[in-house]
Amino acid sequence: MKTLLFCTSYAENPQRWEARYRKWLDFFSSSKVQRDQILLIDDGSPCLPAWRGTRVLRELPSQVPSEKSVIFHFEKNLGRPALLIYPGWFRSFCFAATYARRYGFDKIVHVESDCFLYTARVVRYLNELRSGWTSMWCESQGFPETCIQVICADQMDKYLELSTMDYDRQLANRLIEVLLPFTNVCKDFIGDRYSEFGEWVPEDADFGCQIPESWPV
After folding, report:
1. 3-state SS string over 96-131?
2. pLDDT tens for residues 86-104?
3. Which domains does the chain have, with CATH numbers?
4. pTM score, whole prediction
């Protein structure tokens, strides 16, 4: 399967690009997560990095970029002013479906920029998915972990439909974790949003979410 791995991004300065997004990119560039390209979808950052081997796009070219990693930059920042007000994240998250359809990707792996996959078994599980819309499980919150998702070809139309929703009317002030049309929520792995309760990632964790930039991975 032709696989796109992506995260959303916003950085107010070059230091943030390096501390958060370059850290994530380097981690997954050397991981065993199957991917044909890595995409960072940027919500109008005031500055952009000049990373060797990473192409910055402001519009989609007719042919898929040849680089292994790409940053797509929206000029206008929509932001996320509150937990339940997330127009910037929603636009960026949905754009991955447009990008995938445009260039013939038939599997999308979404891992947010403060999330990491630590064990071979969780990587193998994600690599082997061939159908459905799958998320991990956030034990502390008791809902699907939207920071890690896999959307396969049979769910691509649903993903594209999501992008046509009226954000202000249908999604604003609603918890996105309970709105996405998952076909499978996997509870077989150990992981959580560890920074929310001030704990280091335990040694037996398969994945970690909301990992502070200062924590090692």
Report:
1. HHHHHHHHCCCEEEEECCCCEECCHHHHHHHHHCCC
2. 999 999 999 999 999 999 9
3. 3-209 (3.90.550)
4. 0.96
